[in-house]
Write a structure and sequence with these properties.
The protein is mainly alpha-helical. It has 5 helices and 2 strands; from the N terminus they run ααααββα. Helix content is 57%, strand content 6%. A two-stranded antiparallel ribbon has the order 1-2. A hairpin with a 5-residue loop joins strand 1 and strand 2.
Length: 157
């Protein structure tokens, strides 16, 4: 499981670096799909990850707003903080925990149960989905996207 999180983090870091070549107006420009901009989508990826990790740890959810993280540097910092916490949760996972029920608050205040493994796999898939959107936008601005190739990232040694 940790290898897929590490894969996402490598690709995320490459996207954050990739974004440094664009002017702020391009990073914030409203686009079709995703969270409507490069920066807001990157923020959303990290925010969703930290939210699910808090659910797994049984912590009260923290609500972050994009307006407070609307620069590349603040999102990089937010991402680094989130990785530290997520790594602890993922390293605590094992096959036996896969079906452990995690109570998660919904937007309407109710509680819905998901399994530990289901949440981790959702977070992985969620990021990959949004990375695909960034790739499309990169081509729209005339640039080559970050490679999504899992091979040659030395994850499975």
């Amino acid at each position: 499981m940790i290898e897929f999180f590490k894969y996402n983090w490598i690709v995320r870091d490459e996207w954050l670096k990739w974004c440094s070549q664009l002017p702020e107006e391009e990073l914030l420009k409203e686009r079709i799909g995703g969270m409507n901009s490069f920066l807001h989508t990157l923020f959303h990826i990290v925010d969703v990850e930290q939210s699910w990790m808090r659910d797994i740890k049984g912590e009260k959810e923290s609500f972050y707003e994009f307006i407070n993280f609307s620069t590349l540097e603040t999102i990089k910092h937010f991402s680094e903080q989130c990785k530290i916490e997520t790594e602890k949760v993922v390293l605590n996972w094992n096959v036996e925990k896969d079906y452990e029920q995690i109570p998660c608050p919904t937007s309407n205040g109710e509680i819905e149960n998901f399994t530990y493994g289901e949440i981790l796999r959702h977070v992985i898939a969620h990021e990959i989905h949004h990375i695909g959107q960034l790739s499309i936008w990169s081509r729209e601005v005339g640039l080559v996207p970050v490679s999504a190739n899992l091979i040659r990232k030395d994850l499975f040694k």
